[in-house]
Automatic annotation (TrEMBL):
Organism: Psychroserpens ponticola
Location relative to the cell: Cell outer membrane
Protein known as: TonB-dependent receptor plug domain-containing protein
InterPro entries tied to this protein: Beta-barrel_TonB_sf, Plug_dom, Plug_dom_sf, TonB-dep_rcpt-like
Keyword Signal among UniProt keywords: yes
Pfam annotation, one family: Plug
Domain TonB-dependent receptor plug: 148-222
Leader sequence residues: 1-23
Length: 771
């Protein structure tokens, strides 16, 4: 299908769906309780807090619009058969009717500062983190499915300078400084299609918690942020499944009760790119391979040709839940993520010479967790896991008759023990121990001239932590304070990391927030050469050796003020972040510092601003982020500060979503100033074999601008069967955004500029069914 055909279909879906929605009269129809609650929040200016499983599959007749709040809650209690507890004038907690026999498992919900933050399914908590519930997820511009790592980039202060989910920059940090967890297991691969699609299937990943600062001491690593993804941990006793496809991949999932005490959850996804050529795949292909060995650089384009490419990806995840007793639960997890690329290189001079280049990327994870509910106040958990990452490439240079093999392998073995004690309704204590053994190896082999390099590092870390969470009796003040101590065996060093999160409600409308933390991490990614791993996956994991690769340490703080009234939310948060122990090899320099090894630091000063207005069927928001991000290295640039490679000074997003009945529409605009770049000097010294450059990062690329739109429509076929169709267009106006520029010498010794471009106009269509 052509791009124009997809766009015409998109417009047709919009108008046909609107006409269908207008024709429906739902005033007296039975509707899902989740949909009804959304409208009631806007009508009564209240927030409903609940566990998803509590209200799923419950449908009632929409209550009378003239009900008082008291009459409304009585009506909901009667017809939904649930408890609706009014905490204050603005917050209502929904819970199941208490069973006196279930005395062991109690759940205390964190207070939600704002629901439907940006769109349905995203909420902001009192401890500063943002939670995304994929089951309740509405719609965002350019997305027709709840892509986890694309979704979090809608939050202020989070973006990707190259549009990928494998390079997410949180407040000016590099991607390796994000701690990405899947059911408590650290993941070293985050993207499919080499960064254009999240590697985590969203349909069994029910909760995603994102913390930019003030994180809990339960988490180690991640000096920039924590992205904690959780699958459901409770038995539903109800079979659920679904399947769908879009122009890139097909997937399916199932939750299957085995007995009253056991359930298995399965999900699988595979690309269709090696079977079907679509306009979406065409754009992805151009974006990923535009600056790689596969795309033929100017130096060899007249001598070799690449063909017979075969690319695909898949992921499989499984979780077994078994409740031994009401007090004892055991959980088994398994996940594998894979990207595979092969293509042939054929010499034009000798057509008989054809060699196959390969690239394999895989992350395998498995774990077991035991939960013990000792009583209604004390809970303990113990988890053992392994996370294994492999990146393997074979690259043939047909012209020079050379073969290069590269490998980057990570093995992470972890043990976590945690205890939580609810002292009373206002105080909760956490404490625990964590052990990690991380083994990282890097191998490189060239057959002509003969060269072999193998480096293997091992690190073991022991951590203990303690934390207290306090909520005042009037619910106006929340505080979490904790301390974590890490002991690194290899260096015999202790690192103590205090962390703090405090919020206080000045009135019913204003809330103040203060967040602070110290963190450290021993794993990072470097870029040795721009053609590492065929030039497609340029980053490789390494371990700190406390010499030329130090331990990365961070200290950051933030102060925010938030206003929330009548579904109008205004937020401003100022922050400072200092990170030291970074290496120049981890920053991706492509100027005079590309082959320089040095140790340095960076400091970010900035502010995140958001204004979000919600109506019953409409939500619109404007976010603005300002940041000033500067490097200082020991030897580079005479120890003088200069702009960070990720110094995006200004970033603006304006977007709106519209939801009525089964129709969801979204339109959004994204703009940010261009990232810094370094230009060659006008006059080059011909005696110098390398390019001479001006002051580092003294020039900006042109600004980035993108418009996205999307639409989804739900179809209801019965109580257990429903479907949805969707269409989206990424970069509607096909703007030519330059996301990176570097310089090289051509065969004649002339300096040429090489531009990396963003995705062009990229349509997508999806269809899903649930039963």
């Amino acid at each position: 299908m052509s791009k124009k055909g997809v766009i015409y279909l998109f417009i047709f879906l919009i108008f046909s769906s609107i006409n269908s929605s207008i024709a429906q009269n739902t005033s007296k129809e039975i509707q899902p309780l989740t949909d009804i609650l959304t409208g009631l929040e806007a009508q009564y200016n209240i927030n409903f807090t609940y566990v998803d499983q509590t209200i799923e599959d419950i449908s009632i007749i929409r209550p009378d619009k003239n009900f008082s709040l008291e009459e409304l809650l009585d009506y909901l209690k009667t017809y939904a058969n649930l408890d609706f507890i009014l905490i204050d004038n603005y917050n209502v907690v929904i819970s199941k009717r208490i069973n006196p026999l279930s005395k062991f498992i109690t759940q205390k919900l964190e207070e939600i500062v704002i629901t439907n933050y940006l769109t349905k399914g995203i909420s902001r908590k009192s401890d500063g983190k943002t939670t995304i519930k994929t089951e309740d997820f509405g719609i965002l511009p350019g997305l027709i499915e709840p892509d986890i790592l694309q979704t979090i980039q809608a939050l202020p202060g989070i973006l990707s300078v190259d549009e990928t989910v494998s390079n997410i920059n949180v407040r000016g940090g590099t991607h390796d400084q994000n701690l990405i967890l899947w059911d408590g297991i650290k993941m070293y691969q985050s993207g499919h299609f080499f960064g254009l699609v999240s590697a985590f299937n969203p349909y069994l990943t029910t909760d995603i918690n994102v913390s930019k600062n003030g994180t809990s001491v339960i988490y180690g690593d991640g000096v920039s942020s924590v992205i904690d993804m959780q699958q459901t941990n409770s038995l539903d006793q109800d079979f659920k499944s679904g399947a769908g496809f879009n122009l890139i991949h097909a997937d399916g999932f199932a939750k299957v009760p085995l007995t009253k005490q056991a359930e298995i959850q399965l999900s699988a996804r595979r690309s269709v790119t090696d079977f079907i050529f679509t306009p979406t795949y065409d754009q992805y292909l151009q974006r990923v391979f535009q600056d790689s060995d596969f795309s033929n650089s100017p130096q060899n384009s007249t001598q070799i040709v690449s063909n017979n490419e075969r690319f695909y990806f898949y992921d499989i995840a499984a979780k077994l839940l078994y409740d031994i007793t009401d007090q004892d639960q055991i959980r088994f997890n398994f996940s594998t993520i894979n990207n595979s690329l092969t293509y042939d290189q054929l010499s034009i001079a000798d057509e008989n010479v054809s060699l196959t280049n390969t690239l394999e990327q895989n992350n395998f994870a498995a774990g077991v967790q035991y939960l013990k509910y000792w009583n209604s106040k004390l809970t303990t958990t113990a988890q053992v896991y392994i996370s294994n990452y492999d990146l393997i490439a074979t690259d043939f240079d047909v012209i020079n008759n050379q073969r290069q093999n590269q490998e980057n392998k990570v093995k992470d073995l972890g043990i976590k023990i945690n205890a939580t004690n609810h002292i009373d309704d206002n105080l909760k204590l956490h404490g625990g121990y964590q052990f990690n053994e991380v083994i990282i190896s890097n191998f490189e082999e060239v057959d002509f001239p003969d060269f072999t390099s193998f480096v293997k590092e091992v690190n073991r870390t022991h951590s203990i932590y303690g934390e207290a969470e306090f909520t005042s009796a009037d619910k106006n003040t929340y505080a979490r304070i904790g301390i974590r101590t890490n002991f690194i065996e290899k260096f015999s060093e202790f690192f103590t990391e205090p962390r703090l999160s405090v919020s206080h409600k000045l009135s019913n409308n204003f809330r103040l927030e203060f967040l602070a933390e110290f963190k450290s991490q021993t794993t990072s990614q470097i870029i040795d050469l721009q053609n590492d791993f065929l030039g497609i996956e340029k980053r490789r994991w390494i371990l700190s050796n406390n010499e030329d690769i130090p331990i990365i340490k961070s200290a950051q703080g933030a102060f925010g003020i938030h206003y929330n009234k009548n579904k109008l939310f205004i937020s401003a948060e100022a922050f400072i972040k200092n990170v030291k122990g970074i290496t120049s090899r981890s920053q991706g320099f492509q100027n005079q510092f590309q082959f320089v090894n040095d140790i340095g630091k960076y400091q970010v000063l900035g502010i995140d601003f958001l204004i979000n207005k919600q109506f019953e069927t409409f939500s619109t928001w404007l976010s603005y982020s300002f940041s000033n991000n500067n490097y200082t290295f020991d030897n580079i640039n005479n120890n003088t500060a200069f702009r960070n490679n990720l110094d995006v000074r200004h970033a603006v997003t304006f977007a709106s979503t519209y939801a009525i009945n089964n129709l969801n529409l979204a339109l959004g605009f994204n703009w940010h100033s261009g990232k810094p770049t370094t230009l060659p000097t006008e006059v080059q010294n011909t005696a110098n074999s390398s390019i001479e450059y001006k002051s580092p990062n003294s020039t900006n690329l042109s600004s980035y601008f993108r418009t996205d739109m999307s639409i989804t429509y739900k179809l209801k076929f019965g109580k257990k069967l429903d479907a949805s169709i969707g269409a989206s267009i990424w970069n509607v106006f096909d703007r030519r955004n330059i996301i990176n520029t570097y310089f090289a010498e051509d065969e004649n010794g002339e300096i040429v500029s090489i531009d990396n471009l963003s995705l062009g106009v990229t349509p997508n269509i999806s269809f899903r069914v649930r039963f």
